[in-house]
Amino acid sequence: MNIFRRVLRWLFILGGIVAGLITAVAAFIAQRLIQPLRQPLWGTPDQVDMPYVDVTFPATDGVRLSGWFIPAPGNSLRKGATLIMVHGWGWNRLGEAATDVVANMIGASQVDLLRLAHSLHNDGFNVLMYDGRNHGESGSQPPMQFGEAEAQDVLGAIAYLHSRPEVAANRIGAIGFSAGANTVLYTLPETNEIQAAIAVQPTSPAHFAERFGAHQFGMLGKAILPLAEFIFQQAGGRPLKEYRLGTAASQAGQTPVLYIQGMNDPWGSPDDVQQIAIATPNPSGPLLVPGTDRFSGYQYLIDNPAIATAFFEQHLPE
Fold first, then answer.
1. Which of 48, 163, 221, 243 can pair with 217 through a Cys bridge, CB separation 3.0 to 4.6 Å?
2. Beta-strand relationship, 196-200 and 172-177
3. Structural domain boundaries, residue 297
4. Other C-beta atoms lying within 10 Å of the C-beta of residue 169
5. CA distance 96 to 89
6. Do 88 and 181 fall into the same domain?
7. DSSP 3-state percent helix, strand, coil across the chain (nearest 5)
C-alpha cells in the first residue's frame, strides 16, 4: 500500500509538472500572438546604396505606422510603379533577424527583405517598407488579427502613397510574406487600388496552428495550442477557425495574385495555399518551390527577384 501511495504521489507530481509546462508554453505563445516581441531595426537602405525617406502615416483606424519610402532610380522607365512590402508576424520591415533564443528553438532563419527591396529598386520600382502594427517602430493595437485588422495598415500605406508625386496611383502592387501575405489578401476586397499582388506562404490560421503545434511539440501540441488559443481569445481575438482567408481571397476581384509556397513547409502546406488560390478569382500558381523548411519558401523569392519583377511588369504595365 505504501508503494502504491508513493507511485500515485509521484504520478500526481509528474502530472502537475507537465500541466504547468503546458500552461507556461501556451501562455508564452499566446503572448506572442497578442503582442509580438518587437525586433529592433538592424540596418537602413543607405547601407546598400539606396536613397530613402523616413515616413510615418496612419492606418485607416488611426494606428501610427513607421517605414521607409525608397524612390526608384532617377533613370527608371517604370513611370511611378510602386511596390508595398508587408512583413510577417514577429518580424519588422527588414524581415526576420532570427537572433533570439526562441527563433533558434523553433528553427527560424534570417529573412532579408532589404535585399529584395534592393533588387526591386534596381529594377526601377519605388518601394515602401513599413512596420506593421504591433511590430518594429509602429504603434500598438493588440491583439494580432492574422491580417484582418492589419489590412487597415495597407490601406493607410496606399493613402500615404497618393501624397507622393513619384507614385503613379494606378500602378501600385504589394508583396506580403506569411501573415503579411494574409494581410494583403484581406486588403484586396477593401480596395481596387492594388493592381497586382504576390502572396508568399499565406496560411489559414487554424491550419497553421495545428501543423505548428504538431511540428514543435508533438502530441503535447494538442494541449498547448488550444490553451494558447483560449488565452488569445480572452485578449480580444476570435477562434482561429473564424479567420477565413479563403473567403477574403474569393472577394479579391480581378486583381492578379501570384501565390508562392514551399513544398516542404512543416507549418503551412501546399494544400492550404492551393485551396486559397482556387478561391481567388484571378490567381497565378501556386508556384511550389523546393526547400527544407518554412523559411526556404520566403528565401526563394529573395533569391529569385526576377519572378517578382516579371510579374509586376506584366500587371503594372507602363
1. 221
2. parallel
3. 39-204+247-315
4. 13
5. 9
6. yes
7. 45, 15, 40
Q: Supply 101's cell numbers.
A: 533564443
Determine the residue type at 162: H
Q: Do 107 and 9 reside in the same domain of the chain?
A: no
The Cα 17–Cα 33 span in angstroms is: 24
Are the C-beta atoms of 56 and 133 separated by less than 8 Å? no
What kind and span of H or E run contains 306?
A: helix 306-315
**What are the two backbone dihedrals, phi and then psi, of residue 48, each rounded to the nearest 5 degrees?**
-120, 30
Cell of 258: 501570384
**74 lies in the same domain as 101:** yes
Query: How is 203-262 classified by DSSP, letter by letter?
Result: --HHHHHHHHHHHHHGGGHHHHHHHHHHHHHHTT---GGG--HHHHHHT-TT--EEEEEE
Query: Is 265 found in the same domain as 137?
Result: yes
- Sign, CA dihedral 268-135-71-80, equals positive
Q: Which residues make beta-bridge pairs with 127? A: 70, 83
Residue 301: all three cell numbers together: 523569392
Residue pLDDT tens, the chain, 318 long = 577 666 666 666 666 666 677 788 788 888 888 888 899 999 999 999 999 999 999 999 999 999 999 999 987 778 899 999 999 999 999 999 988 877 777 888 899 999 999 999 999 999 999 999 999 999 999 999 999 999 999 999 999 999 999 999 999 999 999 999 999 999 999 999 999 999 999 999 999 999 999 998 898 888 888 989 999 999 999 999 999 999 999 999 999 999 999 999 999 999 999 999 999 999 998 999 998 899 999 999 999 999 999 999 999 977
